[in-house]
Design a protein that fits this description.
Elements lengths: L2 H14 L4 E4 L5 E4 L2 H14 L14 H23 L11 H7 L4 H4 L19 H12 L10 H10 L7 H11 L15 H16 L19 H12 L10 H12 L3 H11 L5
Antiparallel strand pairs: 1-2
Helix pairs in contact: 1-2, 1-3, 2-3, 3-7, 4-8, 6-7, 6-8, 9-12, 10-11, 10-12
Protein name: C-type cytochrome
InterPro entries: Cyt_c-like_dom, Cyt_c-like_dom_sf, Cytochrome_c_Oxidase_Subunit
Organism: Eiseniibacteriota bacterium
C-alpha cells in the first residue's frame, strides 16, 4: 500500500481502540469488542481511501474527479469517526436530548460544518433548521440502506456509515432535535446553474405544490420536507436522483416513491433546473 494511503488507514485503526471494551470470555480470558458501527465505518473508510489509481497519470482524466472525491470523502469519514469516538459516540453514555445531540453533531461537522450550512465544494447540503421528524426519517433510511445504497450514489455511500454511528437508543432523536434547533444558515448556490424561475413556477404549481405547499413549507403529514433555504445545486441533484431511480426505489421508501413519481413528470434536466430556480425565489 502506498504510504499516502496507508497513513489514514492507520489512523482509522488507532481510532478503533477508542470505545472498545474488554469482556470476560470464560476461564478468565478476555475478548475486545468494538461497536459494530465503528467497525463498519472503518471498513468504509478504508475502501474509500485505498485507491492507488487516483494518482495514476495514465488514468482516464474524466474518471479522476470521482476518484478524488472518494479520497476526500474517505478522509472526512475518518475524521468524523474520530469525532464520534471523542464525543462519546462509542462510549456507554445513554443520555438523550438536545445537549446529547450537540455532542453527537461533532460527527457531522467535518462535512456539514459547524453551522450545519453544508458545502458546495463537498456537495453536502444544509441541514440546520430542518424539522426533526424529517431528519429522523432520513437518518433511519440511511441506517437501513433504504437511502444511499444505489451503486452510483456517492453522496449516499458517504452518509450511510455516518448515520450508523448513531446506534444507541435516543441518538437519532437527540441529534435531530439539536440540528432542528439550529438557525437556518445562508447557503451557497452553484455559479451559472441557470434555470428559469418563471417556467419553474409553472412546473412547481403543477407538480410540487400538493405535497410541499405553495410557499415550499413542506407537510409533515405527507412526509414532505420544506424546500426553502436549500441550495439550488442540491435541489437539482436530489430531483434527478428521484427521476433516475437513485432515490425512492427501495420498496420500504413510501415517501421516496411518491417523490420519484412526481419527479418523473418533469420532462428533462432543464425543467428540473427551472423548478430549483423558482424554489430559490421563495421566502425562507
Amino acid at each position: 500500500m502506498a504510504r499516502g494511503h496507508a497513513r489514514p488507514v492507520r489512523r482509522a485503526r488507532r481510532m478503533l481502540g477508542q470505545g472498545a471494551r474488554e469482556v470476560t470470555a470464560g476461564a478468565g480470558a478476555t475478548v475486545t469488542r468494538r461497536p459494530a458501527a465503528t467497525l463498519r465505518g472503518y471498513s468504509m473508510a478504508r475502501n474509500l481511501w485505498y485507491k492507488p489509481q487516483v494518482a495514476d497519470p495514465d488514468r482516464d482524466p474524466v474518471e479522476v474527479p470521482t476518484a478524488l472525491l472518494r479520497v476526500t470523502y474517505g478522509g472526512l469519514i475518518v475524521l468524523a469517526l474520530c469525532a464520534a469516538a471523542l464525543s462519546g459516540g462509542c462510549g456507554a453514555d445513554n443520555r438523550a436530548g438536545v445537549a446529547r445531540g450537540k455532542e453527537l453533531f461533532e460527527t457531522c461537522v467535518p462535512c456539514h460544518g459547524k453551522n450545519g450550512g453544508g458545502s458546495l465544494a463537498l456537495r453536502v447540503p444544509a441541514i440546520a433548521g430542518l424539522p426533526d421528524w424529517y431528519l429522523e426519517a432520513s437518518l433511519e433510511k440511511y441506517m437501513k440502506d433504504i437511502r444511499g445504497a444505489h451503486p452510483d450514489d456517492l453522496d449516499g455511500h458517504r452518509m450511510r456509515p455516518m448515520a450508523r454511528t448513531l446506534y444507541r437508543p435516543g441518538d437519532v432523536q437527540s441529534v435531530a432535535g439539536y440540528v432542528s434547533s439550529m438557525p437556518k444558515p445562508g447557503v451557497e448556490d452553484e455559479p451559472g446553474a441557470g434555470g428559469d424561475p418563471v417556467a419553474g413556477r409553472a412546473h412547481y404549481e403543477g407538480v410540487c405544490v400538493a405535497c410541499h405547499g405553495p410557499a415550499g413549507e413542506g407537510n409533515k403529514d405527507m412526509g414532505s420536507p420544506p424546500l426553502t433555504g436549500q441550495a439550488d445545486w442540491y435541489l437539482v441533484a436530489q430531483i434527478l436522483k428521484f427521476k433516475h431511480g437513485m432515490r425512492g426505489a427501495h420498496p420500504e421508501d413510501i415517501t421516496g416513491a411518491q417523490m420519484a413519481a412526481m419527479a418523473a413528470v418533469l420532462p428533462d434536466t432543464a425543467a428540473v433546473r427551472d423548478v430549483a430556480a423558482y424554489i430559490r425565489t421563495l421566502p425562507r
